[in-house]
Amino acid sequence: MSINAFGGDKRRDIIFVIATAALAALLIAMPTGFEKAAMHASSARVKVLVTEADNSNVKTIGPVRQGEQQLRVRILDGRFKGTELDSHNLLIGKLELDKIFKPGDTAFAVLDLTKDGKEIVYANVIDHYRLDATAFLFAAFALLLIAFAGWTGLKALVSFVFAGAGIVKFLLPQVLRGWDPVWTAFGVVALLTAVIVFLVGGLTRKGLVAFLGSICGVALTSVLAALFVHVFKLRGAVRPFTETLLYSGFDGLDLTKLFIAGIFLASSGAVMDLGMDIAAAMSEIAEKNPRISRGALVRSGLNVGRHVVGTMTTTLLLAYTGGYTGLMLTFIAQGIPFENVLNMVYVSAELVHTMVGSFGLILVAPATAAAGGFLLAKKKPS
Asked: What is the 3-state secondary structure (H, E, C) of 339-359?
């Protein structure tokens, strides 16, 4: 039997892709159950064109603006298309939240309607309209991926959509419903790892090797995350917007467990990447040299892993800390001593995030190499 035979052939691979795509579509269509928290029956979401913008009530104070823009907008879609009405844009003096509109801008607005839904009471302009650009960006990404990688690219695209839908439409709503964040996230990550690895690597022994190595890395990361979060005395509220959940009717949510789940969820992608890299390399070696011994194949897998781990750990450092450049610049600009910086809860949280994720990566290499040695190497004839 071929070393790539594991439970099926090309036809089974196609069926698996179709089934995963169908499940992803089902997840996307499935309501989270929290939609009514922000929307009610007498409202509608539309795209509007800003035709006029009056800034006479806006004051500029240093780098920020405060006050209120008076807007005139025209609805561009829906049953009220063509209707023009007045609105306003409140500026609170925070650059990260405020937005400025000018004539010709397209915006996303929520219409408050009368109870019968026939008339507009008010148009609340939320933000600039970005859905068209988002759709274009995703379409360009999908086309480039498929054009470059062909069938494998299509499978990667399906796994990408499935992972996003699984997190947004299942993992996060279930956590809000009271499911344990750590165990729920681990179960979802294990499922996503299996689906993504077998989609990209195929229903093959190579895919099985990558899955076994990856799940070992995720398991270690979850254990270490739970341990070091308590050692460093980190609170889950260190993440933006998490504390807001406590004041939104979810006061029973364990933010510390949510933080722990976020650590191994974030590192699982890099773990899968490393596991697949090593499994693919070992599969190629075994294909080119069918007589290679298990020990030699394991050593080859370990050699590949050593080289990849060297760059992947730095990748995690850059990925996790990239979002905190503004915070670090502020500390440096104020001349805060480095010891103080390292002891701050935000920096400690990123250190734990990076180092724990790196521990998981280090384990993936030997685990994948060991699995590959047993599953990919052919037995020598007696």
From this structure: HHHHHCHHHHHHHHHHHHHHH
The CA-to-CA distance between both ends of the chain, in Å, stands at 17
Q: What is the mean pLDDT of the chain?
A: 85
- E-only strand ranges, the chain: 43-54, 58-61, 64-75, 84-92, 106-113, 120-128
pLDDT score of 6? 47
Cα torsion angle, 192, 197, 202, 208, sign:
negative
Cβ atoms of 51 and 39 within 8 Å: the answer is no
Q: What is the mean pLDDT of residues 185-211?
A: 89
The kind and range of the H/E element at 45 are strand 43-54
For residue 11, the one-letter residue type is: R
Residue 324 has pLDDT above 80, yes or no: no
Distance, in Å, from the CA atom of 352 to the CA atom of 256, rounded to the nearest integer, reads: 13
Q: pLDDT of 221-265, one tens digit each?
A: 899 888 988 888 887 777 777 878 887 778 788 888 988 898 888
Distances (CA, A) of 243 to 92, 251, 323, 336, 380: 21, 9, 19, 26, 60
Instruction: Answer yes or no: are the C-beta atoms of 19 and 26 closer than 8 Å.
Output: no
Secondary structure (3-state) at 374: helix
186 and 293 in a single domain? The answer is yes
CATH label of the domain that carries residue 356: 1.20.1640
- Residue that the structure tokens 């029956």 belong to: 41
If asked whether residues 255 and 315 sit together in one domain, one would say yes
